[in-house]
Structure formats: structure tokens, C-alpha cells
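Dear H.,

Thanks for agreeing to be a second pair of eyes. The structure we're designing against is below in C-alpha cell form, covering all 308 positions.
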């Protein structure tokens, strides 16, 4: 099984090209791939599949050629990933499956338009934010916040710590947050935010992963919550500093646009022996239909369907 490793501001992913939709991806295999001690190590997995070959993308066939199948590090399925979709799009261009420019990509949160230059930062139209009734009580590091609930295709609880600065934020022992399960039945991504001279700084605890160096949808949720709180948006543009780097979020009356780096780090091949070990140690759920034979490159039929 071939893979590519990539990241967006330190939010890292294992990319599994699977144009024809042949690869089975059970939760146990995702967990093994993402394990930083015994696997490749990542915050999540991006399976790259043609919409025509993916049942979950049936409604998008004829509109978007590619579907982003995103899994959290714990194996759970996620609707959207702002850093992931930029890395996903960069892979499509750098691998030669799409030309640089505007790409329309299907996700479980809907269609997303991505601008991919030949080199440099990648931008994605994240769609409009949805503010839910709030505030909502969320406890982080033993402190209760009046969190702002925002959806960017996935749920977020934005916690403002106005009495802290970036240095104090970096020193927090960020542990698993406590939130009302009746409001966030499927879990929630929790951001702790402090002001900076140029915008905001944040840390994030992602559902299904834990703390990560960056979260694209979280940066969007933070930016719009911050702008609304300041009475400054839309329109607004907010610089969001994360442990893994800086993202820029633009918000207008129509949508939110996320811009930042999308880096492909390496290409690799998973050894058949490791895949068999994973399948044997974790049970049948960890196996693929043919894990040792799964390939990154699409078949001739898949390449033809992709127009490459």
C-alpha cells in the first residue's frame, strides 16, 4: 500500500490515493496508520477517491470529480477538515491528477472550492458559518468557559481567555474538555483563544484526535466568533496563530475563506508484513480486502475517469 505524508501548519495526514475505490479503510487500520509509535503517525487519514467510485459521494457525481474521505486518528469519520482539504488538493495537483487552478471537491460537509496555485499557499472556500444558540458551558484545564458554538461543517466550541496572553496560552496543560453531551451529541472540537496584536492565537483539542498543532475549521470558527464578538464582521480578515503556524481567515456576507500552507513531505510504501501484522493483532476489522496489494495509483480506467 502506497501513501503520501503531508501537513498544513503541522496538522499532519496520511494520504491514501484510491481513485477506483478499491481500498477498505476500517477504523482499526486508520488507528494503526496514525499511531506515532508503531505506524506512520498522523492526525488523520485522507483517502483520495473519485466521486464516481464512492457511494458517499453519489449526490455530488457530475459536479465534483474527487471526494475527500477523511478519518480522524481514532478511526472515526469526520465531515470536514480545513487543513486536510488543502493538503488533499495540493496532492491532486502535484501528482498530476488535476491542473493548478480552481478545484471543486466533494466532502461529507458538501462541496468545497479550492484554489491551488502551482506553488505556495492554498485557499479553500469553507462555506458560511453557522452560529448555534449559546453560550455553552465548556470546562478546559479546570476552568469553565462560556463557549461560542460555531459549525464550519463540523462542530466547534470557541472559548475566549481574555485574561491570558500567547505565552500563558502556550503553557496551558490542555486536557480533554468537558462539555454538555446533550448539545454536542457527536462530540465537539474545542478551541481556547487569546488576543494578539495582529489577531488571535489559539490551541485546539480535536474530537477523535486530541490536541493538534493546527485545525483549519477551528481557525475559521475562531475567526468568525472573534470578529462577531468585536463587532467587526462580516466583512473581516483575521490572522490566526496556532502552534503549527499561521492561517488567514477571510469572512464576507457569503462565505469564509481559509488560506495557508499545504505541504507534501514524503512518499512511501507500507510493507506487506506490517499490514499483515496489523490485521492479525487487531482482528479482521483491521484488514483490507487485499492490504498488501493496494496501490496508490489509479487503474487505467480510474485515470481515464479522472481525465489524466
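And this is the sequence the design step returned. I haven't edited it by hand at all.
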Amino acid at each position: 500500500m502506497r501513501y503520501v505524508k503531508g501537513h498544513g501548519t503541522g496538522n499532519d495526514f496520511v494520504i491514501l490515493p484510491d481513485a477506483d475505490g478499491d481500498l477498505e479503510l476500517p477504523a482499526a487500520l486508520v488507528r494503526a496508520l496514525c499511531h506515532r509509535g508503531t505506524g506512520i503517525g498522523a492526525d488523520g487519514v485522507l483517502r483520495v477517491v473519485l466521486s464516481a467510485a464512492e457511494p458517499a459521494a453519489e449526490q455530488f457525481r457530475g459536479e465534483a470529480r474527487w471526494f475527500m474521505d477523511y478519518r480522524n486518528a481514532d478511526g472515526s469519520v469526520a465531515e470536514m477538515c480545513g487543513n486536510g482539504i488543502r493538503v488533499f488538493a495540493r496532492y491532486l495537483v502535484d501528482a498530476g491528477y488535476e491542473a493548478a487552478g480552481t478545484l471543486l471537491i466533494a466532502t461529507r460537509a458538501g462541496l468545497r472550492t479550492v484554489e491551488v496555485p502551482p506553488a505556495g499557499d492554498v485557499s479553500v472556500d469553507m462555506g458560511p458559518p453557522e452560529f448555534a444558540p449559546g453560550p455553552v458551558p465548556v470546562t478546559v484545564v479546570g476552568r469553565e468557559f462560556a463557549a461560542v458554538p460555531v459549525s464550519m461543517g463540523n462542530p466547534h466550541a470557541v472559548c475566549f481567555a481574555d485574561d491570558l496572553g500567547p505565552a500563558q496560552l502556550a503553557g496551558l496543560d490542555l486536557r480533554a474538555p468537558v462539555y454538555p453531551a446533550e448539545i454536542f451529541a457527536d462530540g465537539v472540537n474545542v478551541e481556547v483563544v487569546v488576543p494578539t496584536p495582529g489577531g488571535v492565537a489559539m490551541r485546539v483539542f480535536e474530537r477523535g484526535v486530541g490536541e493538534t498543532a493546527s485545525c483549519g475549521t477551528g481557525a475559521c470558527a475562531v475567526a468568525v466568533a472573534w470578529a462577531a464578538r468585536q463587532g467587526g464582521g462580516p466583512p473581516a480578515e483575521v490572522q490566526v496563530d496556532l502552534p503549527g503556524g499561521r492561517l488567514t481567515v477571510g469572512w464576507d456576507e457569503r462565505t469564509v475563506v481559509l488560506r495557508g500552507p499545504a505541504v507534501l513531505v514524503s512518499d512511501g510504501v507500507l510493507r506487506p508484513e506490517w499490514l499483515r501484522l496489523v490485521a492479525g493483532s487487531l482482528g479482521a476489522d483491521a484488514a483490507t480486502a487485499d492490504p498488501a496489494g493496494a496501490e496508490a495509483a489509479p487503474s487505467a480506467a480510474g485515470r481515464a475517469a479522472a481525465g489524466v
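Two observations from my side: The first helix runs from residue 27 to 34. The helical segments are 27-34, 82-94, 166-170, 216-230, 272-282, 300-306.

Warmly,
E.
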